[in-house]
Amino acid sequence: MKNSSKYYLAFALFVFAGALSIPFINGSDVSSFMQNPLTWILGIALAFLILSLFAVSQAMEGIKYHILRKEGRIEELKEMEAAEAAGGDDFLSRLWAKLQDAKPIEEESEIEMDHEYDGIRELDNNLPPWWLWGFYISIAFAVVYILRFEVLKTAPSTAQEFEQEMAAAEIAKEEYLKTAANLVDETSVVMLTDEALIKEGAAIFTTSCAVCHAADGGGGVGPNLTDEYWLHGGDIKDVFATIKYGVPAKGMIPWKDQLSAAEMQKVSSYIMTLIGTTPADPKEPQGDKVTPVPTETQENTDGSSEQEESADAALSLL
């Protein structure tokens, strides 16, 4: 093998070893990396590609040798043989010789077949050991694979792994939705229309708000919530913000430390349903008249379609 070929082989092996060492250096999950079949497939494919390229290079050297011999270019032939002999005693040369198990160029006459075609001579070289071992390993892998996945079934199939991952994703999605409602704020809150959630909001209103706004929302210490007049804005976002931050100057405390975001959304949605109702003793209008506008709603009983879409988007990154 020429010196340049040895350097190419050394460089390729160095790059290959470096690629395999990356997970160990950057602290990645080494076990997952090594257990990933794609890692081994790519590694073996790269190794075979490297060996194939060097085999082709060696074959080209052989063709060159025989052309020189046939044309009687003795000086160039001697130079080529000297270069081959000079670079044949180091570790990489010995390793390459073992991997290919081929006769040296100057000894190929010993394995020539009795026939040739259009000047092309046929040699009886042994199959390269690297190719044979790759073939044997592929057979062993196939046997182990069939026994493990198809006969003994000690590992899940691809379809079973997919089902397991989908079940785990569904559990993770449910866990996310349990807390997703509390991610809402005054900029993203939307109107709830599910009756169960509205009833929960009514219960919160009765416990926390009725003392100032009356049980039917007609007003008392606080303003009337059933008419079209509002002191701090009359859409769902305004109501949510008023509940969250309160109006300390007028005696309304902020509820952000006592109610969760989901609870504030429920009670805000309930308050919006009071508009247009007829309380027993309504307080006079206060503030500015607000013209009702179409309200963005969410209907899912476990949260909202937006939350589910957020959950699906979040899980797709896992």
The domain tally reads 2
| Model regions low in confidence, pLDDT < 50 over at least 5 residues | 299-307, 313-318
Strand content range? 5-15%
What about the largest sheet?
2 strands, antiparallel
Oligomer: single chain
Q: Mean pLDDT, rounded to whole units?
A: 77
Q: What is the 3D shape?
A: rod-shaped
List the helices and strands in order: HHHHHEEHHEHHEHHEEH
Structural class: mainly alpha
Question: Number of helical segments?
Answer: 12
What does this structure look like?
- This protein is mainly alpha-helical and 318 residues long.
- It has two domains: 3-126, no CATH class; 182-301, Orthogonal Bundle (Cytochrome Bc1 Complex, Chain D, domain 2), CATH 1.10.760.10.
- The protein contains twelve helices and six strands.
- The chain has helices at 3-26, 30-35, 37-70, 74-86, 91-100, 129-151, 158-180, 195-208, 210-213, 236-245, 261-273, 305-316; strands at 112-117, 120-123, 191-192, 229-230, 288-289, 297-298.
- The strands form three sheets. A two-stranded antiparallel ribbon has the order 1-2. The protein has a two-stranded parallel ribbon with strand order 3-6.
- α1 (3-26) runs antiparallel to α3, α7 crosses α12 (305-316) and α10 packs across α11 (261-273).
- The longest helix has 34 residues, at 37-70.
- The chain is rod-shaped.
- The model is unreliable at 299-307 and 313-318 (pLDDT under 50).
